[in-house]
Design goal:
The protein is of the alpha/beta class. Among the domains are: 146 residues, Urease, subunit C, domain 1 (Roll), CATH 2.30.40; 135 residues, Diaminopimelate Epimerase, Chain A, domain 1 (Roll), CATH 3.10.310.70. Helices cover 31% and strands 20% of the residues. The strands form 4 sheets. It has an 8-stranded parallel beta sheet. Strands 4-3-8-23-24-25 form a 6-stranded mixed beta sheet, covered by helices on one side. A 6-stranded mixed beta sheet has the order 10-11-12-13-15-14, sandwiched between helices. Helix 3 links the parallel strand 10 and strand 11. Helix 9 runs parallel beside helix 10 and helix 17 packs antiparallel against helix 18. The longest helix has 21 residues. The radius of gyration is 24 Å and the shape is globular. The protein starts with a strand and ends with a strand.
Length: 586
């Protein structure tokens, strides 16, 4: 059956009724269908001869799809769609490949992704010595005093511990030896710790007697000397020293760097099939710059921005001017706020109900207070903004649920808030029903699980790892909506890796971890498409391949809904289409 409709190029703002919260996990809009009236003109683009996963309410499959002026005008069989073609219609032969709704990155850091392409990439370093060698090479090409930055190291992934390790991490002696005249700042893969050499510590004003800022830790050796490891907020003075070093740049240089990072982030996203990106935190100045690029037509990927980095007082004064829900063919929308109550498990920063198994004196760190986040929640309600709070540890998740519940009880609240907890990685089973009761979305990242599983039992012990970690099936069975992502640049932005992790829970060493919590294939695909659209109030525009929605499509080289598990790792993105335009082709 063919589905087609005549519609305005920019559909009006949605007026559909709120989605009942208990049904969020299964809700999408039905495939739009209108009387069989041919479109007023031949479509610009037809994809045919493959498997088209509509991800509609019935998870229907089709063979072909037609797009005109950036919008889907028909979905159906090959013959029916072929009949719509005109002389100028571009035809893409799928040759049996799979077309799906464009992947939506459900939680990432867009500008950080772009910036990560301009500094040292430490993700592939086998050990600390390899990182020191990379820094030495960078110093050889740098001017004295020039900062060397990098990101992506993770001590649990090295093939051997560093010499003289403290809490499993290196000391800065070897790093400082190769960079005596250049400050060095190296971000942890999680984004929740950094490592600095002696020059960077001195630039930040850190010495043996220094105390960290609230929510941070300065790691010391047995003699009380700083090792260079900076947990959570302790790296802010060093980052501030780097920022101070940039004050001499001209406005033109700053703008050029900004545009370069936007472009690099887009290129990486499009190459992985990502057509929309939910950015977990940008301040008003960055939003202003992105708005200027949108006005120029210079944003290749659609962005959903969470406001971050401003006081409650400033947000209360300014949010009304930044309320920009998605309408039509938008490339930038703003209607949410990002907060962060704790850190990451890998850096011992996640806030736990009981102490870490490998650091019995610690239950993690509180980065932003309950009182301040509660204030944000009230500001958000006043201005109609969504609240998305980072919470990784089981104590952090419980505290955020308590905040949300108290705020909901204190005022008359709309029925369709869709507030989120970002990550929700380690949750006490007693709290899962509370997500459902409160209508809270679990914004999780599948690939984190398989990256973390080899060392999670070290942090939590076997029982907590099994009962409280990455509880996808428990959430889904409770009726909680899960949306998926990568937290890029913490992980590669590749949705296929996160999809694979979600359905196999298999780590790189071949081990399968707690398989009872797996998603099905269609659940995982929905978590990366329509669920992400719902989580951003955008399901009228994207997330499924239905008439009247945006022509955002990803073409894969194989059917990830049907191939055996052992073939998922070989899946590749062949084409990325945004608004009916082919933005990437492999």
């Amino acid at each position: 059956m063919i589905h087609r409709a005549i519609f305005s190029p920019r559909p009006p703002t949605s007026t559909h009724p709120p989605i009942p919260l208990p049904l969020l996990a299964a809700t999408t809009l039905a495939l739009a269908c209108a009387p069989a009236t041919p479109p007023p003109s031949a479509p610009d683009l037809i994809l045919r001869g493959g498997a088209v996963a509509t991800v509609n309410a019935d998870n229907a499959m089709a063979e072909a799809i037609a797009i005109d002026d950036g919008w889907i005008v028909a979905v159906g069989g090959n013959a029916e769609i072929d009949a719509l073609a005109g002389d100028d219609t571009e035809i893409v032969e799928l040759d049996g490949r799979l077309a799906i709704p464009g992947f939506i990155e459900g939680h990432g850091h867009y500008m950080s992704l772009g910036n990560s392409k301009t500094i040292l990439d430490l993700n592939g370093a086998a050990n600390w010595d390899a990182i020191v060698a990379m820094v030495a090479d960078a110093v050889a090409d740098a001017e004295p005093g020039e900062w060397i930055r990098g990101r992506g190291w993770h001590q649990e992934k090295w093939d051997r511990p560093p010499e003289g390790a403290v809490e499993g991490n290196p000391t800065h002696a070897s790093l400082s030896a190769v960079s005596p005249d250049n400050p060095v700042l190296l971000g942890h893969a999680s984004g929740h710790a950094s490592f600095a050499n002696a020059a960077a510590l001195a630039a930040a004003g850190y010495d043996r007697d220094s105390e960290p800022p609230p929510g941070g830790e300065l790691v010391r050796d047995a003699n009380g000397e700083l090792t260079g490891l900076l947990r959570e907020t302790a790296d802010r003075p060093v980052q501030g020293a780097f920022n101070d070093s940039q004050f001499g740049r001209t406005a033109e240089e700053i703008e050029a760097q900004f545009r370069r990072e936007v472009r690099l982030a887009a290129e990486e996203a499009l190459s992985k099939g990502v057509t929309s990106f939910q950015d977990a935190g940008a301040g008003f100045p960055t939003i202003d710059r992105l708005l200027a690029l949108e006005a120029e037509g210079a944003l290749p990927v659609r962005l959903y921005i969470m406001v971050r980095g401003h006081s409650n007082e400033e947000m209360d004064a300014r949010l009304a001017d930044y309320y920009m829900p998605a309408q039509g063919d938008d490339y930038l929308s703003v209607r949410s706020i990002k907060r962060q109550i704790d850190g990451a498990l890998g850096s011992h920063g996640a806030w736990l109900l009981e102490p870490y198994s490998d650091m019995r004196a610690s239950v993690g760190l509180v980065l932003e207070t309950v009182e301040d986040i509660t204030g944000t929640a009230h500001v958000a309600l006043k201005h109609g903004f969504q609240v998305n709070t980072h919470a990784i540890g089981d104590r952090a998740n419980r505290e955020v649920l308590d905040i949300y519940a108290a705020v909901f009880d204190s005022a008359a609240t709309p029925a369709d808030l869709r507030w989120r907890i970002e990550h929700a990685q380690h949750v006490h089973p007693d709290d899962i029903p509370r997500f459902a009761e409160l209508g809270i979305i679990a914004s999780m990242q599948g690939v984190h699980a398989t990256s973390d599983f080899p060392w999670i039992p070290l942090r939590l012990g076997d029982d907590r790892a099994r009962d409280r970690t990455y509880l996808w099936r428990s959430f889904i069975n409770a009726g909680v909506l899960i949306n998926n992502g990568t937290d890029v640049p913490v992980e590669d932005i590749d949705p296929l890796a996160s999809f694979r992790a979600s359905v196999t829970r298999q780590s790189a060493d071949g081990a399968i971890h707690y398989p009872e919590q797996k998603m099905t294939r269609i659940e995982a695909l929905r978590s990366y498409t329509i669920n992400n659209a719902i989580a951003a109030f955008e399901e009228d525009l994207k997330g499924s391949l239905e008439v009247g929605k945006l022509g955002d499509i990803t073409v894969l080289d194989r059917n990830i809904l049907a191939v055996p598990d052992n073939e998922l790792a070989g899946a590749r993105v062949d084409m990325t289409i945004v608004g009916g335009a082919i933005r990437y082709a492999r």
